[in-house]
Amino acid sequence: MNRKLIAMIGTSVAFAMLALAPSALATTYGGEGLYGPTNDQVITNTMFIIIGLFVTLIVVFSLIQGWLDHRKHARIDAAKRRATSEEWKGGW
């Protein structure tokens, strides 16, 4: 198959999925969605959970980055010590 045919098939499949997506859940659940009827309390609690998840994600990624930086600097320092050590210099 050539690229034009693959692109045309992919585009037509994408448009078909976009055309059928709006009615997928509305017909099954009467327009309520998967969770059920939502009110202000449900939305507020969901947003607080999302805020907490973002904060937790940032803290975890910062700790991982700090740990990896510490390992990198330790590896660089070890290479410098090996370069200046008499044990690792020259021949026999």
Walk me through the structure.
It is built from 3 helices and no strands. With 92 residues, the protein is an all-alpha fold. It folds into 2 domains: 37 residues; 55 residues. The chain is flat and about 80 Å long.
Key terms:
92 residues; mainly alpha
Structural class: mainly alpha
The domain tally reads: 2
Q: What's the overall geometry?
A: flat
Tally the beta strands.
Answer: 0
Q: Could you estimate the helical fraction of the residues in percent?
A: over 70%
- Largest sheet, described in full? none
Sequence of secondary-structure elements:
HHH
Mean pLDDT: 84
- Which spans have pLDDT < 50 for at least 5 consecutive residues? none
Radius of gyration: 28 Å
State which percent range the strand residues make up: under 5%
Provide a compact summary of the structure.
By secondary structure, the protein is an all-alpha fold. The protein contains 3 helices and no strands.
Question: What's the structural blueprint in terms of helices and strands?
Answer:
Blueprint: H1 3-20, H2 22-29, H3 40-84
